[in-house]
Amino acid sequence: MSWERQISIKSKAELELMREAGIINAEALAAAAKACVPGASTADVDHAAESVLKHYKVTSPFKGVPGPIPFPASTCVSVNNILVHGIPSSKVILKEGDIVSVDCGTIYKGYVADSAFTIGVGEISAEARKLLEVTEASLYEGISKMIPGNRSGDVSAAVQAYVEKNGFYVTRQYTGHGVGRRMWEAPQVPNYGEPGQGVVLKSGMTIALEPMVLVGTEATKTISDGWGVSSADMSLTAHFEHSVAITEDGPRILTLLKDGTPPVSGIRLTDYRIV
Ligand code: MG
Ligand code: MG
Fold first, then answer.
1. Counting ligands in written order, which one lies closest to the CA of residue 176?
2. Separation of alpha carbons 138 and 210, rounded Å
3. Taking burial as the number of CB atoms within 10 A of a residue's CB, which of 47, 65, 68, 106 is the most buried?
4. The model's pTM
5. Alpha-carbon distance 105 to 69, whole Å?
6. Over the stretch 27-69, which tens digit does the pLDDT of each residue have?
7. 250 CA from centroid of ligand 1 (Å)
């Protein structure tokens, strides 16, 4: 079966439910961002997000994902060299100068929102600042290609080009993905690719695009807990993600706050062609 036939097209009503899920998810991420202070543990960051999910009586699809152990938390909290899948821990304490990636999911009325950001703890190095800015901007570069008639390769290539132009690397191992009734749906949308390749994007498709960017190498390694994924050279890493609907009016980001702003951002959305 071709990729295209496996990709679910969401109705307007489904997109409104996904937007509701996205607002809750953004509020959870905003709470997590406020918890990223020196002396806090990564478990504290997870609890801040989870308290928002509990307030809305919703859950995260991350909890219980099968792996070396079932994933034990509502968020992934990944510090410095950890690119993704960090297990929140009371033993991992944040300090000034760290960068923290928080990835959160929400299931609301049967629909999933999936989004992530990376933030600095207090003052961070110039290199870390550049990494955050480039990674976030690469997400919007990709999103701006999410219009009907384009191909998924146009999105992937835009992310890759922006990251590599700025001297950083994208992972080959982990990809963005369709999102909807399930957290992982077709198609896969890598952070590298060729313009004009891949599936044709259609109105009603919903995709979680998630640039995962490394300072020194594209290579990764799994750490001893079996979940966390580190840069192979221990260099800094960052991760930004939005769930996005492809519409006739242009890409619609589902995981912004109710007021249309990202939960954490240094980027002006109006610089990009996004509805
Ligand atoms: Mg995610
Ligand atoms: Mg994702």
1. 2
2. 9
3. 106
4. 0.97
5. 19
6. 999 999 999 999 999 999 999 999 999 999 999 999 999 999 9
7. 22
